[in-house]
Amino acid sequence: MTKILITGAAGFAGGFLVEHLLSLKNFDIVGTYLSDDQLKFAVRKDEVKFEKLDLLDASSTAKIVKQTKPDYIFHLAALTSPRESFENPALTITNNTTAQVNLLEAVRSSDIDAKILIISSADVYGLVDKKDLPIDEDTPLRPVNPYAVSKIAQDFLGLQYFLSYGLKIVRVRPFNHIGPRQSARFVVASFAKQIAEIEKGSKTPVISVGNLSSKRDFTDVRDMVRAYLLAMEKGKAGEVYNIGSGESYRIKEILDMLLSLSSKKITIEVDSTKLRSKDEPELVCDNSYFSKQTGWAPKIDIKETLRDTLDYWRKIV
Asked: Residue 220: beta bridge partners?
């Protein structure tokens, strides 16, 4: 069986990746988590070996890598909020880069011949000129938040370790992925949670929102983790791939679709604390390079994703 190490396995995408891999029944999985609170959200704990690991601890990271002897490493662990990165930019940049350096050094210093997937982000493109839409892998990088800068660093560290040491590293730049179990710190989950609370009667019928005019490319997280495995299996070491649906929606359109799934009359109210100091007007993916390499295409319709997300919050609020 193929041995898998997933950092951040108790996170949003990590959990769905675990489920996808287990459904294929030919992977032996070790997943890392940072805190006991995170472990509460881990899925399939009886089928996956979970190891508590702070990736900022180089020696502990090296120990896990040597013990696991993985064939594939999916590096998902990171601080992931663009908005929160403005509050503590040094923490976001230091955490995300140091954690990855420690992981890559652990592989480099061992005799392990693992293939590694580095998860960058479409946020690296930042302020994209309209003439460059949809965004391909050669679009200039113009980051507008510290999180995006940290993801550029992760991205290029992956390239550097491939060029300098020959590590088998594939990089991906996923566009927004959404679905059940996502933290309410992110926009679609926030909307769904608020609607569910209003339906339950625990919140006044007012939804608090940030900027609704930005356009984003949304992919169901279940389609995204399929793409991650295909990137690992079919992607070329040293290459970088954009992953997204190829269609963008205004945030207001997403909110309207969610509101249409509820019978409650709900008012929209702008919360200035949810506005970023600078926001990208539109991010939409040109996924042709990745699709040609792997055969991937999204399968789940946006309306199904939004319905599943809202139903998830209806069950837990």
From this structure: 178
Phi then psi for 155, rounded to 5 degrees? -55, -55
Instruction: Yes or no: say if 31 and 6 are a contact pair by the CB < 8 Å rule.
Output: yes
Digits of tens for pLDDT over the chain (317 positions)?
999 999 999 999 999 999 999 999 999 999 999 999 999 989 999 999 999 999 999 999 999 999 999 999 999 999 999 989 999 999 999 999 999 999 999 999 998 999 999 999 999 999 999 999 999 999 999 999 999 999 999 999 999 999 999 999 999 999 999 999 999 999 999 999 999 999 999 999 999 998 999 999 999 999 999 999 999 999 999 999 999 999 999 999 999 999 999 999 999 998 887 776 667 889 999 999 999 999 999 999 999 999 999 999 999 99
Model-wide pTM > 0.85: yes
Backbone angles phi, psi at 123, to 5 degrees: -60, -20
Q: Quick one: three-class SS letters along the chain?
A: CEEEEEECCCCHHHHHHHHHHHHHCCEEEEEEECCHHHHCCCCCCCCCEEEECCCCCHHHHHHHHHHHCCCEEEECCCCCCHHHHCCCHHHHHHHHHHHHHHHHHHHHCCCCCCEEEEECCHHHHECCCHHHCCECCCCCCECCCHHHHHHHHHHHHHHHHHHHHCCEEEEEEECCEECCCCCCCCHHHHHHHHHHHHHHCCCCCEEEECCCCCEEECEEHHHHHHHHHHHHHHCCCCCEEEECCCCEEEHHHHHHHHHHCCCCCCEEEECHHHCCCCCCCEECECCHHHHHHHCCCCCCCHHHHHHHHHHHHHHHC
Question: Please, what are the domains in the chain?
Answer: 2-178+218-247+288-294 (3.40.50.720), 187-215+248-282+301-316 (3.90.25.10)
